[in-house]
Each structure stands twice: as structure tokens, then as C-alpha cells.
Amino acid sequence: MKKENTKVLKWAILIALMLIWGSSYILMKRGLESYPAKQVAALRIGISFLFLSPIVILRFRKVKKENIKYFILAGLLGSGIPAFLFTEAQRGIDSQIAGILNSVAPLFTLIVGVIFFRFSTKWYNVLGVFIGLAGAVGLLSVGDGASFGNNFGFGIYIIIATILYATNINLVKIFLKNTDALTITGFAFLFIGIPCLLYLFAGTDFVSRTQELPGAWKSLGYIIILAGLGTAVAGIMYNYLIKISSILFVASVTYVIPIVAIMWGMVDGEPFYFGYFLWIALIFAGVFMVNKESKKDTK
Q1: Phi (first) and psi of residue 294, to 5 degrees
Q2: Angle in degrees, CA 6, 9, 14, rounded to 5
Q3: Backbone φ, ψ for residue 32 (5° rounding)
Q4: Is 138 exposed, middle or buried (0-12, 13-18, 19+ CB in 10 A)?
Q5: Contact at 8 Å (CB) between 135 and 283?
Q6: How confident is the model at residue 146 (pLDDT cuts 50, 70, 90)?
Q7: Spatial separation of the C-alpha atoms in residues 260 and 19, rounded to whole Å
Q8: What does pTM read for this prediction?
Q9: CB 276: neighbour CB atoms within 10 A?
Q10: Which of 48, 143, 161, 269 has the least C-beta neighbours within 10 A?
Q11: Is the C-alpha dihedral spanning 82, 83, 87, 90 positive or negative?
């Protein structure tokens, strides 16, 4: 593919992921109206696996055994554990704040890349890390009349999730560079989807809750959209983006996710405080400095 076409494709995927993932927070919120956080996460992963299972069936014999451990890690770090962390976080913070906090992912992508994968960096990239983190911590101290401690307690789940995302980007970029995006996504969900489905049907009241709770089927519909579009399809696009661009460009999708998340939050009646502007500005200043002149792929 020509360099010009690749550049256009990268930005097209970035914008698509912005729209899809920026909308995922409101879908999680709707799912949480009828199901506990752990059930929403398990449903998201399990349904995504069902969507992707044809890929697993068709490519099962072609997968290299030495890649299995990386598929497992990609599943756990890139989708499995973060899915549970995000639904748990949204029990205590608004969807728009969840989207904003997710924008620190490039900061941790840089940190993980430098420490564990010898990613080259400049002094202003490191400065950006600290500026962005200051903005993220400050953001948690504002809003809804809740105490700083309570907001931080829920927001820290998202911070942990972004660290896992950062690690996954580096792992996929380095260890699965010769594996196509469909195979990576399909087999990553194979190893986390089946356990989630077993947990859902054998260890929870999911079936009785769906049958008896008013509005449960509607919430389940939102979760199916979240899983099919926001996890399965977006996961394929995301893994393909990792293949054709730098790790920091991939992580930069989280720069723009908050725009869509905030719009959905305001439509849904969530408050927006003017104090957010300062901390959001710090976050975006930080991620801008992290990405500045750092466009090369990890070697």
C-alpha cells in the first residue's frame, strides 16, 4: 500500500474508533441499569467472542503454537481485564469522565515502551507524561459534589486499564507483528470469552435477572451493540492500526475519545463543570508533548 494511502487509512480508522469507543461509555452506562458491573463486563467479552468465533474456527489449524501465549496476554491486557475495570469504574463516575481519563493511555504507552521495550524518547515526551498525569489526578478531584477520595477510588480503575492497554500495544507491535489483525482479535477473545460465558451462566443470576427484571432486555440490547461494534469490530480495527502505524499514534485515539464521550454525557444529562477545562487542557497538553516528534515505531 502506498504511503499516502496508508496515512489516509490510519486517520480514517482513528476517527472511526473515536466515534465507536467514545460512544461505548454511554452503552456501558445503559447496561449497568439492569446488570451488575461484573455481568456487563462478562457479557461484553462473551458476546464479542461469539461474534468472532467464525474467525477462530476458520483459522484454528493455521495458528502458530508459539503465539498462543501472546494471544492470551493480548486478550487479558487489551480487552478482558480492562472491560471489568471500566464497568466497575462507571459505578462511581460519569461516562464523560471515564472517557476523559482514558486519554492518559498514550502517557503510559510511552512509559511502558521506554522501560520494558527500549522505546527511544526525548525530554519533552517525559515532561508530557508528568503534565498529563497531573491533569488526570486533578480531573478526579472535580465534580458531582463527591469527595476527592471517592472519585479517585473509582477513577483509579481506568488508570490501571490504560496501563494494561499500553502494555498490550507494545506486545502486539513487537511479538505479533507477523500475525494479521483478524487472527489476533479472534484468538485473543477465544481465551477470555469462554471463561466469561461460563462465569455468566454458571456463577451469576444473569438468566433470571434477564427474564424477570423490567428493562433488562433493553439493557442487554445496548450491551450487544457494545460487544459487537465497540469490542469485536473495533478490536479488529485497533489491531490493524497497530500493524500499520506507530504505537503512539495508536494510543492517540484516546486523545479524541473524550470529545464523543462528553457529547453523549451532556445529551444524557450528566453535569459538566467549568473546572474540568483546566485539567482537560493539562491532559491534552501532556499527550501532545508525548506524541511530539515521536512518530517512529518501536524497534
Answers
A1: -120, 65
A2: 125
A3: -70, -10
A4: middle
A5: yes
A6: very low
A7: 6
A8: 0.80
A9: 20
A10: 269
A11: positive
Residue type, 170: N
Give per-residue pLDDT as tens, 87-101: 888 888 777 677 777
223, 230, 202: which is closest to 23 by C-alpha? Answer: 230
How far, in Å, are 58, 83, 108, 114, 205 from residue 162 at the CA level? 32, 11, 7, 16, 30
Grid cell locating 281? 487542557
Give dist(CA 20, CA 14) in Å, integer.
10
Residue with cell 495508536: 250
Q: What angle do CA 148, 29, 143 make, to 5 degrees?
A: 25
Nearest-angstrom CA–CA distance, 59 and 61: 6
Question: Residues 6 or more apart from 10 whose CB is under 8 A from it?
Answer: 241, 244, 245, 249
pLDDT tens, 210-269?
Answer: 999 999 999 999 999 999 998 899 999 999 998 888 777 787 787 777 778 777 877 878
